[in-house]
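User: Please predict the structure of the protein below. I'd like the answer in structure-token form so I can feed it into my own downstream comparison script.

Assistant: Understood. Taking the following sequence of 313 residues as input:
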Amino acid sequence: MLRYLIILLYFSMSFSGFSMDDRKSLEENKRVDNIMAIKLNDEAKNQISQCINLLKEVFGQNLLGVYLYGSSIIGGLQKYSDIDIFVVLQRSIISEEKTILKTKLLTLSGIYMKSSTRPIEMTIVVKSEVNPWHYPPHFDWQYGEWLRDQFTKGNIEPWPTKEMPDLAVLITQVLLASKTLFGSNPDQLLSQVPYKDFMLAMADSLDNLMTEVKCDTRNVLLTLARIWNTVETDTICSKSDAAKWAIDRMPSEYKPVLQRAIAICIGETIEYWDDIETLVQPCADFMFGQINTQISSSKQSNNIRKSIRLGEY
């Protein structure tokens, strides 16, 4: 017994001897190790590292957690994939900080489909706005390449509202499959999203998604395939895997549309739709119908134990 007390006292004295600088150094080494362990090229890892340094510099002790999620973790980055980063803060962002963020991210993020550098999508929430959970949730700030023009013009808040139903999906993804880049693990800061709210968020995203079929064809088709897969199987998987799943369940005339979307996604062909343009909207409409049917069925279910899980494909 005395031997164990001596060992315990030794380790207690050793760790109490760590200075604040020592602990910061350990945290920094852990962060670097986490980034290096991710299967990304050096350029993407450098982008992520610069994003973390930016967030630490701007928010200091108010930065609670930073997480890498999305294609970087599930399925791997494809030709046009962006780097998805989720950030949890202690407090809301002030105007000066928003200006710093948008200015720096305009240089760190690659221009969608025009740059060899990866686009960055960064979503920032305040902990108290998402935990305890409520629907619809609110975000605090976001950067994405679809906002580049507005940010370039000096608009630091180019959105009509901070209400974001899609946070239900993002938070679920972060909790299921993410890499902690800084701070606490996500389950220490984020609440589980109830199944009914997750499904409600899926439904709320559909109408806006359908308006973009012509201008963002590949992404919309793959997103619809993923939503269809998720509402049918209660799982989340990569867009390419979801599209392959959907191809097996759709009429033969629409299969070439999703096959083209997959080929573009993985870089086997260029973005080209002219030869099958007449099939694109009907294909999207078909998946839209399947999704709505399944969501309607889910709303009538009283199974409170249902939950979303990570798919295995």
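That's the full token string. The longest strand covers residues 63-69.
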